[in-house]
Amino acid sequence: MADTVKGPASYFPSIEKKYGRSIAEWKDLIRSSPLTKHMELVAWLKTEHGLGHGHANALVADTLAERK
Length: 68
Prior knowledge:
Blueprint: H1 12-19, H2 23-32, H3 38-49, H4 53-66
Helix pairs in contact: 3-4
């Protein structure tokens, strides 16, 4: 039986489908931003790239977690 994806990654299939970019592309975009704070990055994705709050939050949370 397949494990159910939980946490931020559970949003990834719908993000790719809705916005037409791979998760790797979104993460590269986040990493290349001069912004470093979680909510600044979320707001930037929402205003500059048209993402919804939940999708932006999931991408930022997962990307920033990689730094730790």
